[in-house]
Amino acid sequence: MLRVPYNLIIAASPLVLPPKATTLGAAISAAADFLDPATGTTALLTGAGVSVESGIPDYRGPSGTYTLNRNHRPIFYTEFVDHHTIRKRYWARSFLGWEAVRQAKPNRVHKYVGDLINGGWLRSLVTQNVDSLHSAYVKDVTEIHGTLSSTVCLTCGTHYDRSELQIELARLNPSWADLLQQELDRLSERRIADPIKSFRLNPDGDLELPARISYDRFNYPTCPSCASNGTAKSTSNGAWSEENIDIIVPHSKRKVKDVGVLKPDVVFFGESVDDHVKKVAEQKLKMADKILVVASSLATYSAFRLIKENKTNGKRIGIVNVGPVRGEHELLVNGDLRVSFIAGDVLGGVVDIMNQQRSPLAYARR
């Protein structure tokens, strides 16, 4: 049986480093000392908690998906690529959830990260997030788990814009499109300023629906490129056909048994991070003197491995996260940073200190 990777249930309280950083003011001061360029360059690794203020939930925070629903189980890569029925379920829930992802706006944390990079207090950014919100303020973002804004064909490797797929999903599933529109109209009538908060959205962009919902009649499209060159077949209305099952293309992008399947361009549980992306992320962290982790429990091994390797190589590690973090009691030592406060509060305070140091008055005092 497949298991959800590393569910954090830790009795020990989060560390506090330095020990005096028990108040927000002390935590901000400690974080500023850690990030100070005079002590070396810092690379940043962010997690799902960064986007909570944008209306996208995290996994293990106070209102996270795993916290509120202990029985939540994500779709695994092998399930998606091997089972037509699983893909129906995923794309149906994604169809309803995409509107929430599309409407999400960058929040103060994304802006503060951009400020710290532009101010020279952060050297580079690697993120586990798949919402692409960091790109509003940072040009060079390495998304180790991909992005929901794009889809990819598992047979030919062609990429498509997710918004274009949404239009096709609506055409193929008019009753589901009506359901989505009714929900949006209802929210509009109630004058809810931020409708995405009313959805029970998961961090990966799919909507949590009741178990009784049937997905049997939901349709999703065939890869247009594979359909046009005859590699894959479509039904009369353009939906992916079951005739594509168990047809292996010898020179396909990935060795999967069903041809013409579109997948969100994100790393599913049980799937490996792209080798090139992995190398870029490793290089960014390697080139820095220190690593700061923000709003991540490091529960996924792809992220934990990066931090563990850099700690083994003698680098200082800083963590700003509310709640426990994987391996923190083994990884962190005196000289490292560990504060358990909201990321926006801490980074905002650091940006204020950075701006004060850059002001003409600050230079006049030197």
TrEMBL record:
Zn(2+) binds at C153, C156, C223, C226. Keywords: Metal-binding, NAD, Transferase, Zinc. Gene3D superfamilies: SIR2/SIRT2 'Small Domain, TPP-binding domain. One of its GO terms (molecular function) is histone deacetylase activity, NAD-dependent. InterPro entries: DHS-like_NAD/FAD-binding_dom, NAD-dep_sirtuin_deacylases, Sirtuin, Sirtuin_cat_small_dom_sf, Ssirtuin_cat_dom. It holds the Pfam family SIR2. It comes from the Eukaryota. The keyword rRNA-binding does not apply. Residues 21-366 form the Deacetylase sirtuin-type domain. The active site is at H145. The keyword Metal-binding applies. Belongs to the sirtuin family. Class I subfamily. This is Deacetylase sirtuin-type domain-containing protein. It comes from Lipomyces starkeyi NRRL Y-11557.
